[in-house]
Amino acid sequence: MSSSVEATHPPRASRPSHKAPLRGVHFAALAALIATPGVAIGRLLPDKHGWLLAGLLAASSLITYALYASDKGRAQRGEWRIPEKILHLWELLGGWPGGFLAQRRLRHKSAKVSYLATFWFIVVFHHYIAIDALLGWRLFGHARAWLTALS
């Protein structure tokens, strides 16, 4: 005699969203991560251009956060997902702070190791550019000389 027991779960769309509260530590970490690129923008660009770039980066972060939220909702509803390469593109365009907050607030894209590896590579890349800019592009110059010597 075989009896099948079916688990009944509410439809995915009706499950709670599981939004995590953002804590002070999240904002402190974000402030620390934004500090180096922020200083680089402030020192290297005239006021008008610095504010323009800061605004573009803030808009990029908002778009990235919105894309994470949309992708999470689509995943919960079993719908077509936003490709990870699109999320990474927006992070690369300066939206990584929005991605950082979305990972913590929405608990989305926060466990997949391959995704996180690419995400943190993008964050480190942005910091490399910022530090190199503050150093007068010395690191880039050394890398270019090294690549030239290889060829």
Gyration radius, to the nearest Å? 20 Å
Give the overall shape.
globular
Counted up, domains total 1
Report strand %. Answer: under 5%
The structural class is mainly alpha
Main β-sheet description: none
Portion of residues within helices: over 70%
Number of strands: 0
As residue ranges, the low-confidence spans are 1-15
SSE succession: HHHHH
- Given the structure, what is the number of helices? 5
Written account of the structure:
This protein has one domain (21-145). Residues 1-15 have low confidence and may be disordered. It has 5 helices and no strands. The termini are far apart. The chain is globular. Helix 3 packs across helix 4. Helix content is 72%, strand content 0%. It is mainly α. The longest helix is centred in the middle third of the chain and has 31 residues, at 47-77.
Name its key features.
0% strand, mainly alpha, 5 helices, globular, 72% helix, 151 residues
What's the SSE blueprint?
Blueprint: H1 24-44, H2 47-77, H3 84-105, H4 113-134, H5 138-150
Helix pairs in contact: 1-2, 1-3, 1-4, 2-3, 3-4
Short description:
The protein is mainly α and 151 residues long. It has helices at 24-44, 47-77, 84-105, 113-134, 138-150.
